[in-house]
Fold each of these.
Amino acid sequence: MAKPLNSPLPGVEVAFYIISWTVICFYSAYETYLLALGNMENLNINDFVYGWRILGNRWKDISNYEWHFWSSWFWEVLPWYCSHILLGRLVERFNFKYKKAFFLVHSFTALCYVMGPLPVTYMAAHVFIMFAASQLKSVKLVWCLSLALLSGLNISAVHTLQKTYMTFTNEEHFYLLLFTSAMMNLRYTSAAMEFVNKKSDSKWKDCFDFFTYCFYLPLYFTGPLLTYDQFEQQINGPVKTWTVSRVKYLVRELMRILLWAAFLEFILHFYYFNALAFDLHAVRSMNRWPLGGLGWSQGQFFHVKYVVMFGLPAVISKFDSLNPPAQPLCISRIYLYSDMWKYFDRGLYSFLKR
């Protein structure tokens, strides 16, 4: 059998590929940009709002619902992220043994303020059901209950009951419950599967740890998913020493994520590719250059969106000496779809593999 060739490509050839790829991507995106501007009168007016005043109140594309939804809720959660970081350091410094208790109490307080007491009680009931199931030491029971609770996200009768007995200020408030319920399902399933095989002398401590993991605030809303076995090991491990290099690293990571978020917000004031994708007539009539630019732009937006949505909570959790999954790999560097599971949502991949 012939041995694979591992010799590097010539530098000139690598440079040619990089320049060619960059020119092709940006030229096709430019064609998409021109087509979107020329097609403005046919785009859905509800996909636009007035944007930043500093840009002259330009139209901003809000048709990507996931980004628009979470970027709006971010301002509601931001004060609680800040208090988590600041108060958490004080508890860590002066009364370390109550650190997990602080996380749980602070998380419940924040969630009751942001979501409301009834939705939080509803989520807590789900968590307790899964904890109780884990104590029966039946893997089949855990999976059956997990799937049953998950199916409620797609049953209109359940939605009707939720809206009847809980108070939601608007439809987005209700969607917040649905989105966080899906994330919670992954967490309590991960924890329950670990507790099925776990031996412990204290049911109270097990229940406390179960709830602390499921309601840990930094990773609560958008993830990334940190499986219970990793969370338990890291949260009970030694606290990382605060050094100048660690502070610089965390500040640099935080600024990097915020700059990417600002970049996405900025680009949506000028480049309306998301709204253009909903104009089926325009999409069907595109030639290859703008069509390729549309696909490439949506892929890159999808990647950077999750760099922000995973990255910000991940950086905040690093203040607590946790080590969450690494950020998504740029999809332009992924050539096998099987690698998407491994290198994009790494937390979900760890969950499935576990």
Amino acid sequence: TMQKAWQYTQRGDPNAVLQLKRIPIPSEIPHNSSKLFIKVSYAAFNSGTPFLISFVPTWFRKTPAIPELEFSGEVLKVGSKVREGISVGTRVYGFLSLKSNILYGEGTLCQYIVAESDLVGIVPDNLSLEEVAGLSGVGCTALQTMQISRLKEGDSVLINGASGGVGLMMVQFARLRVGESGRVIGICSSKNEQLVKSVGADEVIDYQKYESLWMHLNQVFGDNQLDEIIDIVGTEGTFENSPLYLKEGKQYLVLGSMNSNESAWKFIKSMGSFLRNSVQPRWLGGTPRDFRFFSSFPTLRSLDELSEMSREGKIKCFVDSVFPMEDALMGFERVKSKRATGKVLINVRE
């Protein structure tokens, strides 16, 4: 009747506020529902979680709260209205809603969870629970980004932040979109160059080599401008100066800002910058390129498509590291380092 779970009751650094506790296993799921009772095998870290723990006030959310939203595991019980293809014993991966985390304190850094069946995908037979534990987040982000992307076969695309979990998935989707005749250029550190090239990048730019990234981009692409830029890092100055290396009428997609997770002030500053770039007209000094801030969320349709693409070997979710349940705090440190190449997982099962 009891399970292990990481919990926190006040905001602060994860190392300071998270505690491994024994708490009751979730109560029975309603029979007349679309819910699943799942034994968790792996929980996956997301880059925004340290921000949620550190800066979201406890009066705004339910406490005690269990962190993290992504998981993989095995279905133990089902409601009568679950999605087709799922029954007791089905291996699944997916997401808990942010709403359930904020309002009810539900998370995946525990041994048992209750999840909505339309927020889970079915694990392909040829993949392990470890391989898909972080697929829903990075996969839906890349898949849904491609759905609003204007890229076509033969185009050139620059992906800033190409060696992280989202970046590696984005390179794979971009490669599929632009084809062999197109160009995929990734920005990351040189130590990850071969990894990024192995998943589809033609070229890699080491951002650490240049004092000004946008000035280097101007030198390289000024005469042969890009068709699209997908910015996962939110590097300052790259959009404002993008007319130097991004074709007129083309799209600059921003998926987040790595620095915004460091403090509430940096988060507010980043959101203000995104808003200004989105609405400031050109005649008032706005950058003459199409800026779009995009945030995704797992959907049943996206999860089914990711399962099929993974089964066929078209995409792969990379795992950076796996920590045992007792060492979850080390996992948070790895995420906060911004050096992870792929997803950071917690092995809940063992």
